[in-house]
Amino acid sequence: MSDSPPLRVLSYNVHRWGDDRTALARVVKACAPDVMLVQEAPTWWGTRRKRRAMAATFGMRYVAASARNAILVADGIDLTGIRGRRIWRPFIRRRLNFIATQLPGGAVGGVVVLGSTRLAVVVCHLGLHPRGRVHEIAQVLTLCRSFGTPYLLAGDVNEEPDGPIWKRLAEEGLVDLDAGPTFNSTTPHKRIDAAELTPGLNGRRRHIPATREDLAAASDHLPLLVEIRS
């Protein structure tokens, strides 16, 4: 067995960095991730500036993004071979006969070295349209396979485990690191966030070392913390 330390990866929908930023920073720092896979990263005007500022509050660096997904890394962690994919989303019909569009979806990933193992870390945030999500996950998995390495895929899939997305992930042969309910952060009752590993990777979900008060204030989702050993 390798003596190299494990890789700690935090997947987190940060709700556009629009809730209690101080509580969010405490949660992330308590988790001490080497890599952070962010969904709903801040966007619109000054996108890169906002994302760098957010990363700085966590003591991390902003290194990659696609759509509203971003990857942050801790000092000493190199992310190479970065690839992203933007995915068109259809119109969706909301309540009261209003028509709304979704922002473009996508995924982004890169390769890190853990001991003698190269592995990809990929983050995605699937949309609200059920049929659209099936189209999206096919493209996300194509991106994952393109790295030619074992990989961790994590993110907000906007669907509970009895849906077709989870079935497709199982058909891909991925190992589901069951995190339990992740939404909402105040009264968790839906499992709509996933962390999926290529078979053969030695990974496990870890407890989030943060207070319930901070978790409720930081975002509307709970984070997922994964530890991978070589």
From TrEMBL:
Pfam family, one: Exo_endo_phos
Gene3D superfamilies recorded: Endonuclease/exonuclease/phosphatase
InterPro entries: Endo/exonu/phosph_ase_sf, Endo/exonuclease/phosphatase
Domain Endonuclease/exonuclease/phosphatase per the UniProt entry, residue ranges: 10-188
Molecular function as annotated in GO: endonuclease activity; exonuclease activity
Domain of life of the source: Bacteria
SUPFAM superfamilies recorded: DNase I-like
Keywords: Endonuclease, Exonuclease, Hydrolase, Nuclease
UniProt protein name: Endonuclease/exonuclease/phosphatase family metal-dependent hydrolase
